[in-house]
Design goal:
By secondary structure, this protein is mostly helical. It folds into two domains: about 130 residues, no CATH class; about 170 residues, Serine Threonine Protein Phosphatase 5, Tetratricopeptide repeat, CATH 1.25.40. Helices cover about 50% and strands about 10% of the residues. The chain is built from twelve helices and eight strands. Strand 6 and strand 7 form a beta hairpin. The two termini are about 45 Å apart.
């Protein structure tokens, strides 16, 4: 764990790290496993962090936040999908190991009363529920350049937005702030949906990814459509994404880009971030190959409209667009 300075470290010690650090170190010669020698992924440390925060601030488990539609939601309202995890032996085993690291040392190798066993059993059930909540709802936090993971966290308000493979909203994370923007008309009575997945994936790939990471089977509108018939050829879409023309040919790049966009429009709403990002990439590619200015100006107008609606007028992608226009005199 790293801190930017001493002030940050002292603040975090009071926030949660005081409890967390004791559990990480446990004892010099622990009779059972410590949190530091359990092995495995970062999950055990993330779970320890969650436990530390809730122990220092138990009110956060029940504090309600008002959602955009006036309803209220708290940490305790988050789904854990425990029923999907009960048969996951590796997950259950890791939870038990973390529980052992948290239990008093003398309880590891001594005979326990029935009451103590019951108490520990209830404690492990709660730990299992918290682990499920974390696995289902936590999101990755990125640095300012949006190219490196610096941690993870749970946003109560953001977790209110369900997944759809054809999302009608986009969630942008800026530090500890999450902004949700509508990218399509949403009928009255319907909730905005965001996507939990990046890139282009077939229905089967999406279902596997969502079940593995978030423990649910997707039955959104797009998945229902694709159960009846293939919307597009995903192999073609993926190959177009990596297309390289045989020569320096702006027309070939433009044709491939427009074909990729036509396939994407069958999968997503018009102002989906994948379409907006592709337009900016396509503009950069053809502009660098001295494409006609008339065509470039048309592409600039389309790209600018998409970036404003998808990401907002303050987005860094609009800055990139401005730089392209200045560089190539568009």
């Amino acid at each position: 764990m790293y801190y930017c300075d001493r002030t940050c470290q002292r603040k975090d010690w009071k926030e949660a790290h005081g409890f967390e650090c004791k559990q990480r170190n446990f004892h010099h010669n622990p009779p059972g496993p410590s949190i530091c020698n359990l092995g495995g992924s970062e999950f055990k440390f993330q779970l320890m962090r969650l436990l530390a925060i809730l122990k220092k601030h138990p009110e956060r488990e029940h504090d309600e936040q008002e959602m955009y539609d006036g309803t209220k939601r708290s940490f305790n309202n988050l789904l854990s999908h425990q029923d999907k995890l009960e048969d996951d032996y590796a997950f259950w085993e890791s939870i038990c190991l973390v529980a052992m690291a948290l239990e008093p040392p003398l309880l590891i190798h001594c005979e326990m009363s029935e009451e103590t066993e019951t108490e520990l059993g209830e404690r492990r059930k709660k730990l299992f529920r918290l682990a499920g909540i974390w696995k289902t709802n936590a999101v990755v936090l990125l640095n300012e350049a949006q190219n490196e993971s610096i941690g993870s966290g749970i946003f109560i308000a953001q977790s209110y937005f369900d997944h759809a493979c054809r999302p009608t909203a986009i969630c942008n994370l800026d530090g500890l702030q999450a902004e949700v923007r509508a990218i399509a008309k949403i009928p009255n009575g319907q909730r905005p949906c965001v996507t939990y997945l990046a890139g282009h994936r077939s229905m089967q790939e999406r279902k596997v990814a969502l079940m593995t990471r978030y423990n649910f089977e997707c039955k959104c509108e797009r998945c229902v459509e694709e159960e009846k018939t293939d919307i597009i050829d995903y192999q073609e879409l993926k190959s177009l994404k990596d297309f390289l023309p045989p020569a320096v040919d702006w027309q070939g790049i433009l044709r491939a880009g427009e074909r990729e966009l036509s396939l994407m429009r069958k999968c997503y709403v018009e102002f989906d971030e994948r379409i907006s990002n592709k337009l900016l990439i396509l503009l950069q590619e053809v502009a660098s190959l001295d494409a006609p200015k008339v065509m470039l100006k048309r592409l600039v107008r389309e790209t600018e409209e998409h970036l404003r609606i998808t990401f907002g007028s303050e987005s860094s992608d609009l800055v990139k667009l401005g730089a392209v226009r200045r560089q190539y005199g568009i």
